[in-house]
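Summary of Year 1 activities. Much of the first year was spent building the evaluation harness for sequence design. The harness presents a backbone, in tokenized form, and records the residue chosen at every position. We chose the following record to illustrate the format because it has been used consistently in internal testing since the harness was completed.
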């Protein structure tokens, strides 16, 4: 069964590129283009991995990350932060569920590599 990935990004071209790249690699991909609807989209889709932009309309990626870390249903979900804001990396380092941090623009191969690493890390036994 293919892994389910959720992508949250407000740039339509970026969302399309990421979705295309991941689907071509065999993943089932859900998308959301704003922070206001992101929580409901995540709970409804139940992804194995979340790819999260920082700058989102409604609720920013950092605020969403805080909520994800606090909720039992999502606190162990691996997350890859994908943003054009390199300085945001320090904000997300304190969250153990952040499995990767990528800056835009990115290479599709780099995205796939980060997804595979995050999913592999998530399948390791917890101490």
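For this record, the design step produced the sequence shown next.
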């Amino acid at each position: 069964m293919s892994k389910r990935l959720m992508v949250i990004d407000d740039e339509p071209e970026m969302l399309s590129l990421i979705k295309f790249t991941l689907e071509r690699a065999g993943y089932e991909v859900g998308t959301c283009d704003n922070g206001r609807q992101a929580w409901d989209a995540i709970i409804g889709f139940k992804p194995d991995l979340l790819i999260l932009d920082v700058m989102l309309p409604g609720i920013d990626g950092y605020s969403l990350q805080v909520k994800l870390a606090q909720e039992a249903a999502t606190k162990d979900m691996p997350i890859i932060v994908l943003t054009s804001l390199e300085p945001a990396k320090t904000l997300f380092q304190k969250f153990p569920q952040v499995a990767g941090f990528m800056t835009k623009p990115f290479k599709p191969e780099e995205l796939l590599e980060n997804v595979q690493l995050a999913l592999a890390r998530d399948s390791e036994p917890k101490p």
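The chain has a mean pLDDT of 93. Quantitative recovery figures across the full test set are reported in Table 2.
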